[in-house]
Amino acid sequence: MTSSQTRHLISALAATGLAALLAACGPADKPYEPSEDDGPEAAAAVEYEGVPETGFADESPAAGEDPDADPDLAAEEGHTGEPHEHGSGELSVTRDEDFLTLTLDAPLANFGVEEAAPPSDTEAEKYAEGIAEPMGPTSCEENERSVTTRVDEGGHSAMTISVVWRCAKIDRIEGLRINAFSLYPGFHKIEAVYLGPDGQQAAQELTADNAELDFD
Ligand SMILES: [Zn+2]
Questions:
Q1: How far, in Å, CA of 120 to CA of 118, rounded?
Q2: For a pLDDT cut of 70, what percent of the chain falls above it?
Q3: Each residue's pLDDT tens digit, 44-77
Q4: Domain total for the chain?
Q5: Distance, CA 49 to ligand 1 centroid (Å)?
């Protein structure tokens, strides 16, 4: 696979994830449904706010999940585009020529940020600072950094962090150490995927005790 194909694949994956997420959250112009705030899910969601538990979302609707979402769509998503789940994040890392690109998507709550009043993209940029670092016997310099915040359903909001490094001898890069867990204790797990320049792929579930994404 060529670099441009890889890039295209990443865009496609990102678009799919986003589309699935939007589908899961329902259209923006959907009429307000009071039952969501009055029903048993609302109580569960409130409980979940403060006490994220591994596996909770497997059994019950996560906070912000639309119970009316098309189950077929949800099933097709795989690990990308999962409903807004506090404590969880999704990471993709790609290598292209001399560049390493990180994309991390997670609820604002993971960063200890009030979701009801999401910060602007500029205000949120500080959360990209030191979020991860390339591992290996060469040097990399941060080349680009950006953060985009968005509002999810039910008063929830999330952000997507993007960081690009340029590395002197990128062949020597062995992986990426994720500092999100130590910087922001609201992070419990990150589903991570690496896509290399020749079609290499690696997928890992990262946690505070296993915070390094190995590229092979
Ligand atoms: Zn939330």
A1: 7
A2: 62
A3: 444 444 444 444 444 444 444 444 444 433 333 3
A4: 1
A5: 7
The two most distant CA atoms of the chain are separated, in Å, by: 57
Q: How far is the CA of 144 from the centre of ligand 1 (A)?
A: 27
Distance 86 CA to ligand 1 centre (A): 6
Q: How far is the CA of 87 from the centre of ligand 1 (A)?
A: 9
Range of the domain at 65: 3-214
Q: Is the pTM of this model over 0.70?
A: no
* Interval between CA 62 and ligand 1 midpoint (Å): 9
Residues, CB within 5 angstroms of ligand 1 (ion): 107, 109, 115, 156
Task: Render pLDDT for 101-122 as a digit per residue (tens, 0 to 9).
Answer: 999 999 999 999 999 999 999 9
Residue 179 has pLDDT above 60, yes or no: yes
